[in-house]
Amino acid sequence: MFDPTFADQINRLSSQTIQLCYHCHKCTAGCPVAAEMTYGPDRVLRMVQLGEKERLLASHDIWLCASCETCGTRCPNEIDIARVMDALRQVALAEGARPAEPYAAKFHKTFLFIVHKMGRMHEASLLAGFKLWTLDLLSDMDSAPTMLLKGKVPILPHWLKGRNEVRQIFTATQKHHPAETQEN
To answer: Which residue range is the domain that position 172 belongs to?
Structure first.
């Protein structure tokens, strides 16, 4: 079903102009997770342009995006596709669309919760919160000892001095976009 307002909504939320995309495919060629996606970044932008809201919000692609920004650095029109993907996730959550990758949505929410509370990311808290929420406690436990021993996942968090300023950013975002942030 075609939604003629969808592109404008995503443009506004992402602060991007999706209509600038002329589909050179450079974004998809550089995307490290494109092989796992159904559409890839280029086709996602095309679907936004065409107003294919339902199909896009139900896709795995918006949840698989790693937000690495490789696509945006390759774009000749400087479209920040990672911001577009984030806007798509916001709309999906705000409209109650069932995430095609439910663990990715839970990971996204857990990540934002930790940044909101601590002012920065703490990997051990992210792992613990995500594992407890999903009850997927043992799936990758074989890598935990190596990661801990190599210092890849510090046990104790480093508290950010300016964490109140980070909380103020979350509060301001919730005031301006209450529907998009109520789930977080």
So the answer is: 102-181
Q: Are 155 and 148 in contact (CB under 8 A)?
A: yes
DSSP element (H, E) containing 121: none
Q: What pTM does this model have?
A: 0.70
CB 64 within 8 A of CB 101: yes
24-38, 52-66, 72-86, 133-147, range with the lowest pLDDT: 133-147
Q: For residues 163 and 144, state if they share a domain.
A: yes
Domain final residue pick, 36, 62, 94 = 94
Structural domains of the chain, count = 2
48: burial class by Cβ within 10 Å (0-12, 13-18, 19+)? buried
The answer to whether position 1 is within a domain reads no
